[in-house]
Amino acid sequence: MKYVLSLFFVVLLFGCKEVNSNDENKLRKFVEQWNESHTLLKSPYLAPNYMNVVSYYGKQRTRAQVMQDKKMLFEQFPDYTQSILNDDIEVTEESGIYLVTFTTHVSYNGIEADYDSYLSVTIKNGDFRILREGVAETVNDLDAPIFPKARENNRIIANKRQLFGDFNGDGLSDYATVISPELIASKTTEGQNSDAIKCKGGCDSIIVFSSADLENITIKGAYKSELDNLKDLNRDGADEIGFWDIKPTSKTLYVFNPTNGALLTEPIFINTTVHKGLKLIDVFKKSGVNKITVTRSVEQDGKWALKSQIIMLD
């Protein structure tokens, strides 16, 4: 079995030595049982095989997060099976860490495929435990639905408030949610603006969708938000989505076309200190075929007023 090794493999294999036959036989049995547990679709069977923190397809994950991902995989593909092609396993060892390489043969939803795979395994309390799991960097279809990347948005959405609608225009219900930034300094005072707020990694929010064919939408400078389903405004068959950027003294409505992430109008700013209690229907409404009316706060000669504008949509 030949592998085009990634940098990870090269580093790990440098100076590696052969494994004694007794340890190798036990490790082979461990890997075979690990594969069999996938075919049995039993994520609880897999839990004891992992360390508390694992490098999982290039990202650091807790054991609980890995189990959640396996559970979602098995629920999505109840016919999923996994085996080692030709029972061919290669094992090397360096400083108590075993690198196990093999070709995984998978079958799901009528699809069969082979992937150059690896496990990095150590021994803890007398038992084998997985430190790393992944596939070789030369694998060119990492977007396949069996890999964790395909379930990333679903896992995020499962733990957050969901907004339902047909956002991709396929006639079926989708859902969306917002990944908000982690606030470092969140105390606010009257008149405080967004510059006084600090966030870990930047104060940007991201709209993510359950539908895999919709790209995430990033809103810069937004740390607190709400979503609204604005229904189909431009007659493309897909619902538009409204994103409220909420600040201590203002609210700004962004109107997005989820199919391409485009804004249908300039952000609609409302000064909530002056114009209190305004609802969605007060600032945004459909006014005809491909036509909307937006109302925003505008400062003129030192005074704030509400100004409405009719916008034609493409």
Describe this protein's structure.
With 314 residues, this protein is an alpha+beta fold. It has two domains: 7-151, Nuclear Transport Factor 2, Chain: A (Roll), CATH 3.10.450.50; 160-312, no CATH class. The protein contains six helices and 20 strands. The strands form five sheets. The protein has a six-stranded mixed beta sheet, sandwiched between helices.
Question: Short summary of the structure?
Answer:
This protein is an alpha+beta fold.
Which helices and strands occur, and which strands form pairs?
Elements: H1 7-13, H2 21-39, H3 43-46, E1 50-56, E2 59-62, H4 63-76, E3 81-94, E4 97-108, E5 111-124, E6 127-135, H5 152-158, E7 163-165, E8 174-179, E9 182-185, E10 198-200, E11 204-209, E12 217-220, E13 225-231, E14 240-247, E15 250-257, E16 262-263, E17 268-271, H6 280-283, E18 284-288, E19 291-300, E20 303-312
Parallel strand pairs: 1-6
Antiparallel strand pairs: 1-2, 3-4, 4-5, 5-6, 7-8, 8-11, 9-10, 11-12, 13-14, 14-15, 15-16, 15-17, 18-19, 19-20
Which terms summarize this structure?
314 residues, alpha+beta, Nuclear Transport Factor 2, Chain: A, 2 domains, 6-stranded mixed beta sheet, 6 helices, 20 strands, 18% helix, 45% strand, elongated, disordered N terminus
